[in-house]
Design goal:
The chain is of the alpha/beta class. The protein has 2 domains: 238 residues, 3-Layer(aba) Sandwich (QueA-like), CATH 3.40.1780.10; 85 residues, no CATH class. It is built from 8 helices and 17 strands. The strands form 3 sheets. Strands 2-1-17-16-14-3-12-13-15 form a 9-stranded mixed sheet. A 6-stranded antiparallel β-barrel has the order 5-6-7-10-9-8. Strand 5 and strand 6 form a beta hairpin.
């Protein structure tokens, strides 16, 4: 496989804070036909899109999934990350603490001020280092998380330690459906005003859902990326969005995905359509996707993509290469480092078209 997925990044280029004005982020413009790299800002996006194009957003909402507490047996500190709720009502989470956790074991959960707020039983170790857990009073997950949970910042931002402003800053302005444990970071660059300007220029806007999971950022640890076990994420394409996307494609407009998560939804649905013999039209869909997009890959529903600069040795970087071409994306990343672009979740962006 002709792919490049590793590079060295100066630590000071990892953005620790977002810009005060989201649209002031720099925007690297990658033109695949010309094999060119140009420089702009996110606020220039309305001029870079064309009337008849359709911008597709991910409307997932980050939940305050990070938990902190104390082990009642030892008094030791405990950290957990809520991953979801199982059909029987138990929680699924990952956690870390010093020493071995015994099954079952009770944890006192602390609120954001460090005060005892709830109790959680670690019931049973599950697969991949995950745990089944059960709140002692049966409180609904989202209600408890909203009450005491923290924004699950990635560890490269202030070692994962949130400040109050992250509650708003690590969330897109169009977030609607709770379920993600990480933000779809390309969407963080948009403001309501920018979206209105884009719409006034004749560009359609649609939304899909993909709840970003922890596996998104899992590094590729094998020499052959094809052997990397791909994670699953839950997504949905509504009937209205499918209709809008099909109309845009019939009108020869481009489908511009905002982020790799949107690409995964679009290409999952398009692959199902192709396998079903219904051509290029996409249909409503809901479920889990394990689609691993890497070079070489034939895109069926994505014409362009806005995306942030991604961590090395990740499936996200391979997806970007599959769309932009390995050599052009390698050159783009080298240019971004030379030009001092800001990297990762709170960083700058690139438009591949």
């Amino acid at each position: 496989m002709d792919a490049w997925f590793d590079y060295e990044l100066p630590h000071e280029l990892v953005a620790q804070e977002p810009l005060r004005n989201r649209v002031d982020a720099r925007l690297m413009v990658i033109d695949r036909a010309r094999q060119s790299i140009d420089h702009a800002h996110v606020r220039d996006l309305p001029e870079l899109l064309r009337a008849g194009d359709r911008l597709v957003l991910n409307d997932t909402k980050v939940i305050p999934a990070q938990l902190r507490g104390l082990r009642e047996q030892t008094g030791g500190r405990w950290q957990g990350l809520f991953l979801g709720q199982l059909p029987d009502g138990d929680w699924l989470l990952v956690c870390k603490t010093r020493g071995k956790i015994h099954e079952p074991e009770r944890v006192t959960l602390l609120d954001r001020e460090g005060r005892p707020a709830a109790r959680l039983w670690l019931v049973e170790r599950a697969d991949d280092g995950q745990w089944r857990a059960r709140p002692e009073d049966g409180e609904l997950p989202l209600r408890l998380l909203e009450r005491i949970g923290r924004v699950p910042l990635p560890p490269y931002i202030r070692s994962g330690n949130m400040v109050d402003s992250d509650v708003q800053r690590y969330q897109t302005v169009f977030a609607r459906r709770p379920g993600a444990v990480a933000a779809p970071t390309a969407g963080l660059h948009f403001t309501a005003d920018l979206l209105q300007t884009i719409a006034r220029r004749g560009v359609g806007v649609s939304a899909v859902t993909l709840h970003v999971g922890m596996g998104t950022f899992r590094p590729i640890s094998v020499d052959d990326p094809a052997l990397h076990p791909m994670h699953a994420e839950w997504g949905e394409l509504s009937e209205a969005a499918a209709r809008e996307i099909n109309l845009t494609r019939r009108g020869e407009g481009r489908i511009v995905a905002v982020g790799t998560t949107v690409v995964r939804v679009l290409e999952t649905v398009a692959a199902a359509a192709a396998a079903g013999g219904v051509g290029d039209a996409v249909a409503p869909w809901q479920g889990e996707t394990r689609l691993f997009i890497r070079p070489p890959y034939e895109f069926r529903a994505t014409d362009a993509m806005l995306t942030n600069f991604h961590f090395p040795r990740t499936t996200l970087l391979l997806l970007v290469q599959a769309l932009g071409g390995s050599e052009l994306i390698r050159r783009a990343y080298e240019t971004a480092i030379t030009e001092r672009y800001r990297f990762y979740s709170y960083g700058d962006a690139m438009l591949i078209q």
